[in-house]
């Protein structure tokens, strides 16, 4: 058994409670004790001196694209040779965990097996990366693709069923439907909806029948209503949601997740000029209108208790890999989340969307030891999570991905450290 003691840390446990000072003991891959730790149990542990730094769960990106290659050339996602593309995906996986992200949900892969291969390599310990749920190429109908070279086409209910089966055969964890347009394409409008009810219903039924969830690129009001009506599990964007859609989402809030991908809208509107898409052009095609509409609708979703998670569409030139925590800032600055609410959306809700709420996303006994030690207080300044230099430790499965030997201390001596207070413990798994 390997043991690690984080001593004298500020514990942000993602239960909603205020942070509190204490120690956290990790045994093998699990959190064994939180708060006051019995020195006898910690004897011989590797000790990390927290010195009051914040210990919290690793973060979740609910809309991940390992294969988006930091380019302004959208078509290049399809033309990039698969060998180089896989290497880029491996680098993306490392960048996510470097950034404190230990949970990621794949939102589409640019080529058939890129996500699946990376997931399997991470699970096997061959490459560093977050816990990952893999996707395949997004499914679009004829005339509805955002980027043709990375799209799997299907038409009609039977075509949808066949496409879903083929992707499941590749080994994906979820299916992605590309239901609406995207203004940057120049031809596909965000408020256009390309799927029929019958097509959505067929895709979702087939996926669910085989134990897979469905996520959807759904910007238009009509597409959001379709998603809820037919059981799409994860709605991406929802920029133009209307009152009926809000009511439907609220009624379905026990099972549906919304991941708006706010930084894509902000950066495309204000930060893409150096890559050939100035603000004037972005406003002309409707991105300012979309951002305003999205913020209004998402604020209302937050008020109604609909599950909103950060993350989305990182990996373009103006939304580069490694900048993922900007979405947390947007949740606070644009949507009115408190910093605590934003962190809960990226940790506790992350555990939920990863289908493991009982063991991911919290600093609690029995949970998997996916932890980050932060130099600073993210409740006072949410942007501290964007500074990689202030993520002093990153742990996944009880093993350090990033560490600082300067913080090492001698192991506790149980003879000189009597236990005080009440210890929260779970037994070590056999």
Automatic annotation (TrEMBL):
Residues 402-430 are annotated as: Disordered. It comes from the Bacteria. GO terms for molecular function: hydrolase activity, acting on carbon-nitrogen (but not peptide) bonds. Residues 55-399 form the Amidohydrolase-related domain. InterPro entries: Amidohydro-rel (IPR006680), Metal-dep_hydrolase_composite (IPR011059), Metal_Hydrolase (IPR032466), Metallo-dep_Hydrolase (IPR051781), OTAase-like (IPR057744). Keywords: Hydrolase. This is Amidohydrolase family protein. It comes from Pseudonocardia broussonetiae. The lineage of its organism: Bacteria, Bacillati, Actinomycetota, Actinomycetes, Pseudonocardiales.
């Amino acid at each position: 058994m390997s043991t690690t003691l984080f001593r004298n840390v500020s514990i942000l446990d993602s239960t909603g409670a205020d942070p509190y000072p204490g120690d956290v003991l990790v045994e093998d891959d699990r959190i064994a004790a939180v708060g006051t730790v019995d020195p006898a149990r910690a004897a011989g542990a590797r000790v990390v001196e927290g010195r009051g730094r914040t210990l919290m769960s690793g973060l979740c990106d609910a809309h991940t694209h390992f294969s988006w290659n930091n380019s302004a050339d959208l078509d290049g996602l399809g033309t990039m040779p698969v060998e180089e593309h896989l290497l880029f995906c491996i680098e993306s996986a490392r960048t996510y965990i470097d950034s404190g992200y230990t949970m990621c949900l794949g939102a589409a892969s640019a080529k058939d097996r890129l996500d699946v291969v990376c997931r399997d390599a991470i699970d096997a310990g061959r490459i560093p990366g977050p816990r990952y749920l893999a996707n395949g190429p997004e499914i679009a109908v004829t005339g509805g693709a955002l980027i043709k070279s990375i799209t799997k086409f299907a038409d009609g209910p039977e075509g949808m069923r066949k496409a879903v089966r083929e992707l499941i055969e590749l080994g994906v964890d979820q299916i992605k439907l590309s239901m609406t347009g995207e203004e940057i394409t120049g031809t596909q409008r965000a408020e256009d909806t390309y799927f029929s009810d019958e097509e959505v219903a067929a895709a979702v039924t087939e996926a669910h029948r085989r134990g897979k969830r469905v996520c959807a690129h759904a910007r238009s009001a009509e597409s959001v209503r379709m998603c809820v009506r037919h059981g799409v599990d994860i709605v991406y964007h929802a920029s133009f949601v209307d009152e009926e859609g809000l009511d439907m989402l609220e009624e379905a809030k026990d099972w549906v997740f919304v991941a708006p991908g706010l930084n894509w809208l902000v950066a495309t509107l204000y930060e893409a000029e150096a890559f050939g898409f100035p603000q004037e052009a972005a406003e002309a095609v409707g991105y300012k209108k979309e951002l305003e509409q999205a913020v209004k609708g998402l604020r209302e979703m937050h008020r109604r208790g609909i599950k909103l998670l950060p993350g989305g569409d990182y990996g373009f030139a103006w939304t580069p890999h490694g900048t993922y925590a900007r979405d947390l800032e947007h949740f606070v600055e644009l949507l009115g989340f408190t910093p605590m609410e934003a962190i809960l959306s990226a940790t506790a809700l992350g555990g939920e969307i990863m289908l493991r709420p009982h063991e991911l996303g919290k600093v609690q006994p029995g949970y998997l030891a996916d932890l980050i030690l932060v130099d600073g207080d993210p409740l006072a300044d949410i942007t501290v999570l964007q500074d990689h230099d202030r993520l002093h430790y990153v742990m996944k499965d009880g093993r350090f991905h990033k560490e600082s030997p300067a913080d090492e201390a001698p192991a506790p001596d149980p003879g000189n450290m009597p236990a005080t207070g009440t210890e929260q413990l779970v037994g070590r798994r056999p």
